[in-house]
Design a protein that fits this description.
Shape: elongated
Distance between the termini: 73 Å
Largest sheet: 2 strands, antiparallel
Order of helices and strands: HEEHHHHHHEEHHHHHHHHHEEH
Number of domains: 2
Radius of gyration: 23 Å
Strand content: 5-15%
Number of helices: 17
Number of strands: 6
Structural class: mainly alpha
CATH class of the largest domain: Mainly Alpha
CATH architecture of the largest domain: Orthogonal Bundle
CATH topology of the largest domain: Fic-like fold
Length: about 375
């Protein structure tokens, strides 16, 4: 059996003996990914401009928050969303990790067609770790010793010792060639190559900290570079965070079994399919919410944009919204967003609440359902 496995093994990174067995299930998932993330289903994903903006903002926020929380950011999701939506200055290390992650993702989206270079990799790491490291000068710089190890946070047991730091310059050169080669020989599906990149950056640990965040960001960028544009609308890290133990186990099993990364590849493929399923579920809910918004538009005096604001507020009744929130979700100017909120307050559907001496928040009115019923009676 082992000889059979070896005959089928893909040499993913020969310099370090990294390999895996390409199975029919892996190929099936890659094919399904082509259909969904870059092909037939993707072509059917045609929300209007405002809805597209909403999905994009939400997914990027979720990825930034979840990827940072995986690496120790203790900020709650609610506080993090509030900071990002309102454009607030990060108050502590956890918030700064999330803000840096968000800024890095936006940078990668804007530069998705560029080649990876050693300097660009250092810049990405610097963006990701700005002002969050014990030694600020380590941001955007490869580690210069072998003191970095990966430990079990509960037992403090060392679970991974990265390869010698002197191997890192050559690894980074190889990584850039691998990343930029659009026609590899032998051929390996882009999704599988992206997973190899994810694993290798985490395995080599080229930096003193921020390796996991950087590895996931490079996977995200690699997928966008290969036209899997729906990746912008899903958060892989949000799915990983729900079962972080399985994520870590996939690394450990790969290393324990002679660097056979099939464990990690299979885990990553399952995670991607779950992320896609969550996007499908979100779109289904969105269609239902759009129907509610259409019902709101039947009320005299409510414009389509204002109906979407009500739809958004009703979907998250425990949150408050600012003019900045509404601007991000609807893609309008601050003046238009404020005007829409004022109109909804005039109709008695939205209330204004003070957040501080300057900022104001907006929520559904306490008697929203009653007021809505009255307005419908006058249709």
């Amino acid at each position: 059996m082992k000889a059979e496995r070896e005959r089928k093994a893909v040499e993913a990174w020969p310099n370090f003996g990294i390999h895996f067995t390409l199975t029919s299930e892996m190929q099936r998932v890659c094919h399904e990914t082509d259909l969904k993330f870059g092909g037939q289903w993707g072509s059917q994903f045609q929300p209007d401009k405002a809805a597209r903006q909403k999905y994009l903002v939400c997914s990027i926020f979720e990825e930034a928050i979840s990827s940072s929380q995986l690496e120790g950011a203790s900020t709650t999701r609610r506080d993090a969303l509030r900071m990002l939506y309102n454009g607030e200055k990060p108050k502590d290390k956890g918030r700064l990790m999330i803000f840096n992650n968000y800024r890095t993702i936006r940078f990668l989206v804007e530069h998705k067609n560029e080649d990876l270079t050693p300097d660009l990799l250092m810049h990405i790491h610097a963006l990701m770790t700005d002002q969050t490291l014990d030694k600020p000068e380590d941001a955007g710089r490869m580690r210069e010793n072998n003191e970095v190890v990966v430990e079990n946070v509960i037992t403090n047991e060392v679970v991974h010792r990265p390869p010698h730091y002197e191997l890192l310059p050559q690894f980074v050169e190889d990584l850039c060639r691998y990343f930029n080669n659009d026609s590899p020989t032998p051929f390996l599906h882009p999704l599988l190559r992206g997973i190899v990149i994810h694993f290798m950056v985490a395995y080599m640990h080229p930096f003193v900290d921020g390796n996991g965040r950087t590895a996931r960001a490079l996977f995200y960028w690699f997928m966008l570079r290969h036209d899997y544009w729906l990746m912008e609308y899903v958060s892989i890290s949000a799915v990983i965070k729900k079962n972080k133990i399985a994520y870590e186990r996939a690394y450990l099993q790969s290393e324990a079994d002679g660097l056979d990364i099939g464990y990690f590849v299979n885990y990553h493929l399952r995670t991607l399919m779950r992320a896609f399923k969550e996007l499908e579920d979100t779109l289904t809910r969105s269609k239902e919410e759009k129907k509610r918004a259409h019902d709101y538009m039947k009320i005299d005096g409510i414009q389509p944009r204002q109906a979407k604001i009500l739809q958004l507020m009703q979907a998250t009744p425990d949150d408050f919204f600012t003019v900045k929130n509404i601007q991000l979700h609807t893609g309008v100017t601050p003046t238009t967003a404020k005007s829409d909120l004022v109109r909804l307050m005039e109709l008695g559907l939205v209330e204004e609440i003070p957040l501080n001496k300057v900022k104001r928040g907006y929520v559904l009115s306490r008697n929203f359902e009653e007021q809505l019923h009255k307005l419908r009676q006058h249709e």
